[in-house]
Amino acid sequence: MRRRVLLLAAVLALAPACGKKSDDGTAPVAAGSLPALSIKDDSPELMLTWIDDKGDTHVVIHPADVPAAGRSLVRVVVADREAGTRDLFYVADLTKKRGDGSYDTTTMRRRAWEDEIEKRRGAYLAKVAPPPQPSGSAGADRPPPAHDQGKVTVIIYGASWCGPCHQAADYLKKKGVAYVMKDIEETPGAASEMREKLKSAGRSGGSIPVIDVRGQLIVGFSPQAVDRALAKAAAGTAL
After folding, report:
1. Which end of the chain, N or C, is surrounded by fewer C-beta atoms within 10 Å?
2. At 168, is the pLDDT very low, low, confident or very high (cuts 50, 70, 90)?
3. In CATH, what number does 153-235 get?
4. Domain locations in the chain as residue ranges
């Protein structure tokens, strides 16, 4: 009995100290939510992704670089935080600034983010897609032009949730072109490497994928732009 009393006294003595422990980022959070995060216009080490009306994603560094059309739903990644890079994302509404100049973030599941991209892309394609051609029409099912690209290795900077990134990879695969996919969220150093290349090319940001064809940077996926870059690389006119 005496041992029980001493043990209870020790637990009670420790209780106040445990209650004062500061949050070091390891405390568990409620299922389906991330730890609280607020950002400001001058917050460092941000990677902000917004979606345009075509369903293309664009990556910028500062909240001020997000245009009005994309400010209501912006994905937020902080360089020194792992939280927000896996199945749960931070998203912010940059149209709502608090009195102290900060923007609050909420939690969004990866699948919901991808669904929003697909919804916008589908709506845009429905508006601009030409009427379907009969299967025997000229140009139907015509394979892409072939290039002798055996010695070219293309780098794709993208992310797992980015549809155009996978489209670019599939297109290169069909053409027999070797490529390396660098996930700017998962591959160490990929995001900074991409930013440095964009900076050297005189660009501060843009949509992903960013495709590097032997020094030629293509922002976003365009089969025609990829073909032109591959042709220059094959001819030895690219860096």
Report:
1. N
2. very high
3. 3.40.30.10
4. 33-128, 153-235
